[in-house]
Write a structure and sequence with these properties.
Layout (H helix, E strand, L loop, with lengths): L8 H25 L5 H30 L14 H6 L7 H10 L1
Protein name: Zinc finger, DksA/TraR C4-type domain protein
Organism: mine drainage metagenome
Length: 106
């Protein structure tokens, strides 16, 4: 099993669901104030909304991994992602080593 010793599936699921609810609330608030902002701010606002949608997608993918038992497993190498990384970013898909390789390649 890919889960670390301290961060269980239930706790990870709760963290991810809380993150999902927070992002949805932020997205709702962003949509509510959209008509009140000028063009330059509107463009920034659209980028912010797109980023929120990307993060929501990442959180939903992580929740899917919780449900199928693969949460905490690196998508690239299959090794366990350290608990400290998952606690910092519960939707992490790469271990530190693979994340470093990916950053160096881009």
């Amino acid at each position: 099993m890919a889960m670390g010793m301290n961060l269980g599936f239930a706790e990870a699921g709760m963290l991810l669901q809380a993150r999902q609810a927070d992002l949805a609330a932020r997205l709702d608030e962003a949509d509510r104030i959209a008509p009140l902002i000028d063009e330059a701010r509107r463009l920034r606002h659209q980028r912010h909304i797109a980023a929120l949608h990307r993060v929501i997608g990442q959180v939903e993918a992580a929740l899917g991994k919780v449900h199928d038992g693969t949460y905490g497993q690196c998508d690239a190498c299959g090794q366990a992602i350290p608990d400290r990384d998952l606690a910092h970013e519960p939707a992490s898909t790469l271990c530190g080593s693979c994340r470093g390789h990916q950053a160096a390649a881009s």
